[in-house]
Design brief:
Blueprint: H1 13-18, E1 38-39, E2 45-46, E3 69-70, E4 75-78, E5 85-87, E6 100-103, E7 105-109, E8 112-117, E9 124-128, E10 135-142, E11 149-157, E12 162-168, E13 174-180, E14 191-194, E15 204-210, E16 214-219, E17 222-228, E18 233-234, E19 239-240, E20 247-255, H2 263-268, H3 278-283, E21 286-297, E22 311-314, E23 324-327, E24 378-380, E25 387-390, H4 391-396, H5 420-429, H6 431-445
The chain binds 2-acetamido-2-deoxy-beta-D-glucopyranose (4 copies).
Amino acid sequence: MVRGLLPLGAALLGATAVLADGPPKCTLDKKCPKEAPCCSQYGECGVGAYCLGGCDPRMSYSLDSCVPAPVCKDKVYKMDNLDRYKDISEYLGDSSKTDWVGQGEPLLYNGNVLLTMPPKSVGTVLSTTTYMWYGKVKARLKTSRGAGVVTAFILFSDVKDEIDYEFVGVDLQTAQTNYYFQGIPDYNNSGNITVSGNTYDEFHDYEIHWTPDEITWLVDGKVGRTKKRSETWNETLNQWDYPQTPSRVQLSIWPGGAETNAKGTIDWAGGPIDWDSDEIKNFGYYFATFSEVSVECYKTDTPPGTSKGKSYYYDDVRGTNDTVVDSNKRTTLKSLLGTGTDMDKGDTTSSGKPSSTSSVNAIPGGGSTPPNQVPGGSNPSSSDGSSSGSGSSGSSTCSSEGFQQHCGEDGSSSTDNKNDGARGVDRTLGASAFAVIVGFAGLLLL
Ligand SMILES: *[C@@H]1O[C@H](CO)[C@@H](O)[C@H](O)[C@H]1NC(C)=O
Ligand SMILES: *[C@@H]1O[C@H](CO)[C@@H](O)[C@H](O)[C@H]1NC(C)=O
Ligand SMILES: *[C@@H]1O[C@H](CO)[C@@H](O)[C@H](O)[C@H]1NC(C)=O
Ligand SMILES: *[C@@H]1O[C@H](CO)[C@@H](O)[C@H](O)[C@H]1NC(C)=O
C-alpha cells in the first residue's frame, strides 16, 4: 500500500537545504551502504530508528545491521492513556518501558486513543514495540469514515510478511482482509467480511488468530475468514507463500485518497479525500478510535515461537521461518546514532557530549511526521479493483522483484502506477535532512 502522502511543506524547507537528496534507497538487490546500514520499512537507509522496528535485514548492509526485535509479550493494552507511547524520534529500543511507537498525532479522547489525520496530513501510525511470532491479536475499534480515508489494523514483519484488516471510509459495512508473504503482491489474497451495523459508529472486535498452519480472521468473535498454509505452496520457489515471521501490530489512519496517490489507490479508497468535509469541520481531523488491543503470544516448547528469549533476529537473507532465531540479544541503542553492529555509538554517559558530526539519517520519514507511506493494508489493482500490493511493502522499495512499483517520475512506464504519487512526494519531502536535525536534537537530550 502505498500510502501516499502529502508534502510536509514549509516546516521542512529549511532542513531540506541541508541535504538535497534524501536518504539512499534500499531494495533486495541494492542493500544499504556501510555508513547508513539499516533499511527502514519504507525502503530508505539510515541509522538509529532505521535500525529498530521495521528494519529489513534482507536489504540492510548486513543481517546484523538491524537491532534484534523484542520478543512477544502477552498483554492487554488499554487504550485509555498514552503513558507508554513514544514518538519514533524518542525511542531507543527498550520495550520494557514503551509499548507503542508512532508517528503522527495520536490523541486521548473519552478514554480512548484517537489516531488522527488533520487536513493535508499523512495520518498517524502506531506500532507495538514487541513482535508477535504467531498468536492471537484483537483490536476493539471504530473506523474513520469518508471518501479516501483508510483505517488499518495489521500484523507486519520486518521482512514484510503481513496480515491485515483494512477499512475504506465509504464502506462502513465491510472489513477487508488480506495477507502477504514478504510483501509480494498477489491479487487473489484479499477477502471481505461483512460487519453488522456499522464500523464507524460502533465498536467492533477485530481479531487475527495466526498459527504456523492457519490464519483466522474473526469479527465480534465470529470466524469471517480462514486461510490455511497448506493452500499457499509455491511450486516455483519451493516455499510456503505464507506469513511466517515475527510481526509488530500496527494501527493506522492514512489518506488513500490523497491527490498525490495513483488512481488505482484513490479509487480503491473510495475517491479523492475531502479536506473540507463535515468531519474536518466538526472535529478538525479525520480519526479512528481504539479502545483496546490485546496480544496473546503463541507458545511452544521448541522454536519457533517459544516467546521465551529476549529477542528475535534473522540468520539468513531468505527471511523465512527457519531463519528466525529466538535469542537473548540486546535490543537497545544508546543513541540515535547507533546501529545493530554499534549499539553504544553516541553514548554520552561516559564522555559527555557526542563528538560525532555524522550527517546520516536517523529517523525514517522525519521526526513526528509519518513517512509518506503508512504501513498496513493493501493496494487495489487499478485494473480489476481487487487488492494488491502490500502497503508498507509495496511502498517500501523500488524493488525489481514484484512490487510493481514505479520508481521514476514518469508513471507511464509502470504496469501499476499506484505508487507514483508516493514516490513523487518522497522526492519533495526532504525528510532525511529533517531527520538529521532531529537526530542531533535527540542526542543532546540523552
Ligand atoms: C489468481 O486466481 C486466478 C483465478 O483462479 C488464477 O488464474 C491466477 O493464476 C491467480 N493468480 C495468482 C498470482 O495466484
Ligand atoms: C471488498 O469490498 C469492496 C467494497 O467495499 C469491493 O470493492 C471489493 O471488490 C471487495 N473485495 C472482494 C475480494 O470481494
Ligand atoms: C511464486 O512466487 C513467485 C515470486 O514471488 C511469483 O511470481 C509466483 O506467482 C508465485 N507462484 C504462485 C503459484 O503463487
Ligand atoms: C517452518 O515452517 C514449516 C511449515 O510450517 C515447518 O514445517 C518447519 O518446521 C518450520 N521451521 C522452523 C524452523 O520453524
